[in-house]
């Protein structure tokens, strides 16, 4: 679309050249002027069509800008939603980590408790071993007493039981002997009773110690089982929390990725909006340019019609060729950059350079380069070219457009005619420039931009002397 616009603009500018040439030919025929008028009428039709297409393109661009802004709003809403979810996720992760920290503390305490219980178990084992030794001793004592009692019972049975005690007493030879025998019998009976009492006590002690050991064993084992179960439950809780935390960390990673993607998309949309806004401005400038060119075509047609009225049937006469070089150097200085691909001095990327650069001090005069008379099509500031002038020349039946950029100022205006070598401005460093110089372009067939895949720019070195 933009390429078509440039072609139409150049075609219109060519008409301005034709107007000038109408007034500078040594002789013109009625047929040639009539053909020029018809050509001007075609140019008017083309401009009207271009106006319509440009209005449509401007409307389409505005729709794209609106759609872009709507998409930006959606992306911003997504970013806000993701950011809120990220905040919630981070808060939940912190909460889970706090819970895990608490559980780790509980696990540490339980492990200490298990250690303490294990120490109790070990102590109980030692007590059990000691008790086993005591039980062995008690059993030995019981066995001795049981053996002694058996011997006593066997002796009593063998000697007739309690009657023998009476015989012992009645067999006393004196009262003193009787007392002695009574005392002896009582002692023997007391010993028997003592043995039986001790045997009963030893058995009870043995029973109690067995019960005590068993109870301690059961208590400790129960406590240990309870603590180990609690420890296992806490471990399960910790595992579950760690799984939940892992899922949350994964979710956070996904959200971070989404945030990054949405942020990148927002950046692309903002950049696209910037380009669309610039394109919209460019379209507005081109609309204004087309309107001016339409006026120029209308005026050229009027001049041609006036000339047609003044012409008679005087026959054909050749036009005068002013002679001279097709192009001259537009400014004095040194060539600092050639035509073609290069590393851009500002953006540091490989870009196509559609002209040559002439390094010169600020204020160095710049002159019109093209042969014969040209028409100034542009004299304004451009964000990249800075202050620049574009001139259209008709040379040997071919249209050429020259572009003079980065001027400190220009001294011509759009629509003005200029001769080869005429002052048009002064060297400067306006626009995208790194120092005082003149950027000079030659476009064969009209200016249609500087994109390497479609530009009409040619190497000025081919034409310059």
Please explain how this structure is put together.
By secondary structure, the chain is α+β, with helices and mostly antiparallel strands. It has a domain at about 320-465: Glucose Permease (Domain IIA) (Distorted Sandwich), CATH 2.70.70. The protein contains four helices and twelve strands, in the order ααααββββββββββββ. Strands 1, 4, 5, 6, 7, 8, 9, 10, 11 and 12 form a ten-stranded antiparallel sheet that branches. A two-stranded antiparallel sheet has the order 2-3. β7 (about 385-395) and β8 (about 400-410) form a beta hairpin. The protein is rod-shaped, with a radius of gyration of 59 Å. It starts with a helix and ends in a 7-residue tail after the last strand. The relative contact order is 0.13.
Record keyword descriptors for this entry.
465 residues; Glucose Permease (Domain IIA); two-stranded antiparallel sheet; 4 helices; 15% strand; disordered N terminus
């Amino acid at each position: 679309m933009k390429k078509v616009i440039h072609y139409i603009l150049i075609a219109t500018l060519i008409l301005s050249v034709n107007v000038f040439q109408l007034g500078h030919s040594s002789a013109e025929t009625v047929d040639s002027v009539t053909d020029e008028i018809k050509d001007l009428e075609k140019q008017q039709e083309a401009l009207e069509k271009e106006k319509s297409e440009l209005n449509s393109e401007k409307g389409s661009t505005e729709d794209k800008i609106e759609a872009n802004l709507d998409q930006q709003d959606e992306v911003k809403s997504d970013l806000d939603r993701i950011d809120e979810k990220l905040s919630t996720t981070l808060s939940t992760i912190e909460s889970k980590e706090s819970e895990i920290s608490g559980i780790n503390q509980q696990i540490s305490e339980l492990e200490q408790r298990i250690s303490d219980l294990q120490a109790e178990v070990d102590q109980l084992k030692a007590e059990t071993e000691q008790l086993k030794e005591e039980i062995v001793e008690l059993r030995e004592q019981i066995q001795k007493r049981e053996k002694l009692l058996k011997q006593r019972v066997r002796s009593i049975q063998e000697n007739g039981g309690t009657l023998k005690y009476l015989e012992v007493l009645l067999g006393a030879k004196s009262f003193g002997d009787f007392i002695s025998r009574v005392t002896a019998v009582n002692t023997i009976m007391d010993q028997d009773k003592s043995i039986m009492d001790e045997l009963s006590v030893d058995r009870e002690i043995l029973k109690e110690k067995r019960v005590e050991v068993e109870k301690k064993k059961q208590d400790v084992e129960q406590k240990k089982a309870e603590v180990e179960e609690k420890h296992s439950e806490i471990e399960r809780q910790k595992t579950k929390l760690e799984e939940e935390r892992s899922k949350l960390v994964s979710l956070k990673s996904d959200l971070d990725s989404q945030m990054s993607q949405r942020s990148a998309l927002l950046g692309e949309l903002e950049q696209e909006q910037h380009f669309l806004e610039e394109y919209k401005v460019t379209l507005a400038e081109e609309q204004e340019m087309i309107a001016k060119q339409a006026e120029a075509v209308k005026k050229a047609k009027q001049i041609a019609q006036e000339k047609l009225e003044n012409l008679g049937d005087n026959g054909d006469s050749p036009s005068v060729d002013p002679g001279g070089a097709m192009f001259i150097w537009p400014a004095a200085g040194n060539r600092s950059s050639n035509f073609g691909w290069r590393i851009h001095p500002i953006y540091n990327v490989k870009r196509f350079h559609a002209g040559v650069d002439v390094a010169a001090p600020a204020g160095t005069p710049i002159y019109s380069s093209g042969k014969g008379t040209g028409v100034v099509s542009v004299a304004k500031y451009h964000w990249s070219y800075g202050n620049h002038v574009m001139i259209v020349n008709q040379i040997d039946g071919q249209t050429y457009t020259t572009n003079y950029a980065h001027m400190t100022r220009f001294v011509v205006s759009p629509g003005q005619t200029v001769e080869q070598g005429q002052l048009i401005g002064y060297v400067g460093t306006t626009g995208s420039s790194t120092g005082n110089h003149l950027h000079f372009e030659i476009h064969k067939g009209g200016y249609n931009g500087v994109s390497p895949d479609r530009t009409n720019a040619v190497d000025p070195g081919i034409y310059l002397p």
